[in-house]
Amino acid sequence: MKKYLVQPEPGNPALTESVDGVDHTNTAINTRVPVERPLTLFLNSQEIVTVMTIGDFPEDLALGFLLNQNMLTHEDLVTGIEHEPDIDVVVVRTERETDYEEKLSKKTRTSGCAQGTAFGDVMEKFESVALPDTTLKTSWLYALSKNINTTPSLYLEAGAIHGCVLCERDEPLVYMEDVGRHNAVDKIAGYMYRKGLSVDEKILYTTGRLTSEMVIKAVQMEIPILISRSGFTAWGVELARQANLTLIGRMKGKRFIALSGTHRIEYDADPDTIPAELSHLQRKASTKRNAD
Amino acid sequence: MKKYLVQPEPGNPALTESVDGVDHTNTAINTRVPVERPLTLFLNSQEIVTVMTIGDFPEDLALGFLLNQNMLTHEDLVTGIEHEPDIDVVVVRTERETDYEEKLSKKTRTSGCAQGTAFGDVMEKFESVALPDTTLKTSWLYALSKNINTTPSLYLEAGAIHGCVLCERDEPLVYMEDVGRHNAVDKIAGYMYRKGLSVDEKILYTTGRLTSEMVIKAVQMEIPILISRSGFTAWGVELARQANLTLIGRMKGKRFIALSGTHRIEYDADPDTIPAELSHLQRKASTKRNAD
Q: CB–CB of B46 and A112 under 8 A?
């Protein structure tokens, strides 16, 4: 099996904090919780957004956010990325002013908020992406699910965090976690861009729900298969069907359902040979009692 | 027991859609998924934000969002709320221009995005709120948890949705659901404002994680107790401690942990008399096989 290029660091003391409290029996306990801090993204001199993040891979988060929002395209030449940890800022610099900055300076006079205008731009690219007709074997699905769920992670250590994993066939390659709803997938997009990873035969796995935003991000990244432990929204399904994206949700143990792009699925595994998930891996956080 | 003032409508055909797909055995299935649609909020002539929502209680969502972001204060006189379903817009009108609009028109020239500037304003009120020293009996916690989890809901019907419940002592009163991360709690804030509900002896229950944003919203609403089935972030805990908010998470069956404001808790129930949660109520969505 290939080794992860990036995998969670549950032992990294910068990413979790130890906190004291009491449990249901009024016994003192100590537990670990994930860190959450603001990070403000700039594109050249333009402030774009402040996101809440655990704080790892800030450069990839900034790049991936800008790429997934179509504020930066693969045609823009990135000349530098500066992370200033003391003021929680990342600045992405490009060779020339991007189209997005020009659009934004016009739009702000009428709308006041980048969030509103960004959506239209994102859908522009969405409609032009043609996803490749790759295959997805159900044996890969089960192998990925088992491998990802048993990989040591901040989730298993501290809970309250989402994970997103870039996979190739039956192998997980890049496993990012974050408290922010979409940061984990944005960090993967930024990492792929920075390392020049191809999208061939890639699969995206997420612990989060398959909403419209998550489907749009997968399509933006030109990845044809999106898998989740969680459920779907109606618009997520509709957009996936429009984009010819394979959308698989409620993936737990031997069970899953597919609501879009089912032509890519090759049923080569016998679900009855797949064991149920071990209860301690069912995405619950650990709580340790104090020694005293 | 008091009746709910608002409770989920899993049978409302406007809130879920029936979709076809296949399951892990390649059998055709049909399942329900929650609707997700954009709604753009205006404060007078100022466009504020576009949120993704299931679409119920649009007026309460708009009011609650503006209140919880400190864009509207209890001093502003709301003269009208117009929902235009054909263009997915809600306009909240006030007697005079609010401070927020003035601030925004100055800020946009330098920052370009309301999201960045809103945060500072939210923290301004946060620091001035003094939460009352009410009591929380553990018997109420268990009663609320059981009652809420067995109430028919869109979650039990279709999955992929968050719930938030305003409670008083051991009774749930207003149960809102939404696909959007914070919309459910904003709808409660809007409903409380519109109906003039007092915050006395109120408790807020959420299915979502106890992040900084969720803690800030509870404090904005001046509710002293926040309970969740999910986990914590470090900054959520820190802010709750600053604000003297009782913060209870990982509440499932007889178990919970409290990481802030533990002085409010009165342990009057024996946890060993609390049954484990029934597996079909453990927040998983149902999947029905097709009759054929």
A: yes
Of A123, A196, A136, nearest in space to A167 by CA:
A136
End-to-end CA, chain B: 43
**Which tokens hold the place of A93?**
């610099």
Across the A:B interface, residue pairs with CB atoms under 8 Å apart total: 208
Q: Which residue of A has its CA nearest to B20?
A: A259
pLDDT tier, B276 (very low <50, low <70, confident <90, very high otherwise): confident
Q: Would you kindly state where each structural domain of chain B is located, as residue ranges?
A: 136-289
Instruction: Give the nearest partner residue to A160 out of B232, B262, B271, using CB atoms.
Output: B232
What span, in angstroms and rounded, lies between the C-alpha atoms of B106 and A112? 10
**Set of chain A residues whose Cβ sits within 8 Å of the Cβ of B249:** 160
CATH architecture group of domain A136-289 = 3-Layer(aba) Sandwich (3.40)
Question: Cα–Cα distances in Å, from A19 out to A8, A30, A54?
Answer: 21, 6, 16
Given CATH 3.10.20.10, say whether it is the number of domain A37-126: yes
Question: Residues A227-266: pLDDT tens digits?
Answer: 999 999 999 999 999 999 999 999 999 999 999 999 999 9
Q: Is A35 on the interface with B (CB under 8 A)?
A: yes
The ipTM value here is: 0.88
Say what angle helices B234-243 and B212-220 make with each other, to 10 degrees.
20
- Residue pLDDT, tens place only, A141-172: 999 999 999 999 999 989 899 999 999 999 99
Please give the model's pTM, rounded to 2 decimal places.
0.90
